[in-house]
Amino acid sequence: MNAPASLARRVLLQGRYETMTMLRNGEQLLIAVILPLMALVGLTITPLLDEFTDSRIDMAAPGVLALCAVSTGLTGQGIATGFDRRYGVLRFLSTTPLGQSGLILGKVIAVLSVLAIQVVVIGAAALLLGWSPEPGGILPAAVQLILGAGAFTSLGLLIAGTARPEATLAITNLLWVLLAAAGGLLFPAASWPDVYEPAAQLLPSSALGDALRSALMDAEFNLTASIVLLAWTVLAGLAAIRWFKWS
Amino acid sequence: MPNTEPCLDIQGLVKDLGPVAALDGKMVRVIDGVHLRAFPGQVTALLGANGAGKTTTLECAQGLTRPNGGTVRLLGQDPYEAGAGLRSRVGVMLQEGGLPQAIRPIPLLRHVAGMYRSPRDVDALINRLGIDNFGNTPVRRLSGGQKQRVALAAALVGDPEVLFLDEPSAGLDPQSRAVVFDLIQELRTEGLGIILTTHLMDDAQRLADYVFIIDAGKTVAHGTVAELTKATDESSGVERLLTFDARPGLDLAGLPGLSVHETVPGRYTLAGNLIPADLAALAKFWEEQDIMPTAIHMAPRSLEDVFLDISGKGLR
Asked: Which of A41, A242, B243, B292 has its Cα between 20 and 30 A from that of A156?
């Protein structure tokens, strides 16, 4: 009589497998690493951030880290999961000892692994560009970045689990562009017109951007942004559990 | 039936799917009374037309979906509630394969093997199914038959006691078909309980020890192939089906007592408990009409005839 490998082994195997799949995919790598690097350099050499700060790189780096969470959680997992669902991969793996819960835990590991690689690459590039993050803000920033990745991964899975994969591809790529340009990720929502600003601050992207900027620029814990982020993580997670279709 | 515990026992299965937008968001009862029993060391076939409910029945059996009624026992457990322990003893090949498209077959099989404490020898499996020839080609570039073989290997890599195969011969070229069918026979001899679905009578007739005919969400007949194709009236012997090809449009009124039908222009069939006198009458008719048939064929009633009798000849 056969028996399953231990839960830890199954989940770690799946996490490694999903991480390698994401890293081997050219488009995923583009949106996870190359485009954020270009955004970092672009915001540092152009005067776009000059109206908010004296130090472009100190404001650019936290925003680009927030963008990384959107790349990996929303766009990356959204597209990968959407196509896996189309081809029956989710159903097949559900019938192996991995199961549905192992599949989800594997995705969590993959998102955190890719996010760690992004932090190293973006962090190193930012330091080379003269970034000096507040040491006291690093731990809260790490917690908020993980919370944000949770919110965006839940949103990515919600879209992937309810829409066709082609639609998921279009929606998540479009959202990435919109949130980067006008979602408060790279530019603080405080800069938007008065009618738009309060609404913008309720966006998960704006909350994550503001939280990381508060922590890494001023060593402050941004409570409002953290509450908004937590609410999005919980609501998107519950919605994904409720509406996600495995086939 | 062998004197052992069934590896799969489904009684009074009911499953609703939906809501369906075209029906004002109503649920549709796609399974309403499927009974099924499968035993170790046997190939059990679910035979039915497309849309009869075969795949949904399998999904309930595999624990992928929760039935709305009835009971499902897989190796004595409820598959929907059971955990990794049960899943490690069951192999599943889905209809579309369920394979990730970007990965190569050999790394995929090693990955899946890692989910089990004592998997099969992956190299031997790869060799047995001829996967080594394309083991490093991404799945998306494989032919239908190659994908099916990889999906079968993925279902077997955990060395299961029960194997589910949803339409195993779909998309198989004759070569792959021979490899896959041989392996299924071999696995049966090893003692696996194999449950497969098919809409091809030929598959069921070649592979199955026991057949359940599913129609419109119900089990409508079951038995061995021999039992199902036996004459309905035991005393009258075996029912036969005779076909002959001749010029189209023959006047069949000159054949009293025999109900010959022209099924397609130029092809005539006669079914029933034929006796030598019937053949003599037929030959006399040919002589009178100066007909020399271009082909004559007679065989016992096939599973296909049984199936068509039961499920109706109309197209669905």
From this structure: A41
Give the span between the Cα atoms of B293 and A64, in whole angstroms: 82
Q: Are residues B46 and B161 located together in one domain of the fold? A: yes
Q: Do A3 and B92 touch (CB under 8 A)?
A: no
CATH number of the domain to which B213 belongs: 3.40.50.300
pTM for this entry? 0.84
CB atoms within 10 A of CB A195: 8
The pair phi, psi for residue B213, each rounded to 5°, is: -95, 120
Number of H helices, E strands in chain B: 10, 13
CA distance B163 to chain A (A): 11
Q: With contact defined as beta carbons under 8 Å apart, do B51 and B153 qualify?
A: no
Of A24, A89, A97, the CB nearest to B87: A97
Is residue B314 assigned to a domain?
no
- B116: nearest CB among A5, A21, A95: A5
What is this model's ipTM? 0.89
Measure Cα distances from B22 to A163, B27, B29 in Å.
Answer: 18, 11, 15
Tens digit of each residue's pLDDT (9 = 90 or more) over A149-189 = 999 999 999 999 999 999 999 999 999 999 998 899 999 87
Residue of B17, B59, B66, B111 best to disrupt the A interface, most CBs of A under 10 A: B111
Residue type, A151: A
Give B158's pLDDT tier (boundaries 50, 70, 90).
very high
Residues B278 and B293 in one domain: yes
User: Would you call B115 and A91 a contact, using CB atoms and an 8 Å cutoff?
Assistant: no
From chain A, the residues in CB contact with B118 under 8 A are 2-3
Question: What distance lies between CA B127 and its chain's CA centroid?
Answer: 26
Q: How many other CB atoms are found less than 10 A from the CB of residue B95?
A: 17
* C-alpha–C-alpha distance, residues A219 and A213, integer Å: 9
The Cβ of residue A177 has, within 10 Å, a number of other Cβ atoms equal to 12
Q: Which two tokens stand for residue A231?
A: 């609410």
Q: Does B88 sit within 8 Å of A2, measured CB to CB? A: yes
d(CA B169, CA B185): 14
Decide if B115 and A4 are in contact by the 8 Å CB cutoff.
Answer: yes
Q: How many structural domains comprise chain B?
A: 2
| pLDDT tens by residue, A182-229 | 899 999 877 777 777 778 889 999 999 999 999 999 999 999 999 999
Answer yes or no: is pLDDT of A16 > 70: yes
Beta-carbon count within 10 A of A101 CB: 14
**B79 to chain A: closest CA residue:** A95
As a whole number of Å, the CA-based R_g of chain B is 23
